[in-house]
Write a structure and sequence with these properties.
With 144 residues, the chain is of the alpha+beta class. It has three helices and eight strands; from the N terminus they run E-H-E-E-E-H-E-E-H-E-E. Strands 1, 2, 3, 4, 5, 6, 7 and 8 form an eight-stranded mixed beta sheet that branches.
Length: 144
Amino acid sequence: MEKRKFLVKGPISPDLIAGYLNKLGERKNTGGHSIFLGQVRDDMTDGKMVSAIEYSAYNDMVEKEACRIIEITRGAFNDIKDIVIIHSTGLVKTGAISLFVLVTAGHRDHAIRGCRHVLEMIKEYYPVWKKEIFEDSTHKWKDQ
């Protein structure tokens, strides 16, 4: 079995996303796919405009947590066929994609609900830390 990739250095490229989307037709037992793309916003924090987020992660912890999230979600939604979770590490500028989640199921309901379930678990448990980089080159660690 091919080892899953849960982290990529820098922003998530359209080519990476397209690669996963191009493979969707290979599965004949699926009828619904739910996709979430997390994009870095140009938020205003403490009167300063965010220009990027620098993500830090420990690969072994991320792999363990991602596998746990996938297992729990598949248990909650028995129609799910596959779950892809990819998160950026390193510097990601505003406007770029930093999170890609794809949930594939036999039917749309489990794909959509399963995707939301994955996202809520990522938000609460995923061991990725965020440092906001401001336009004036200062920074601040961000709470989840």
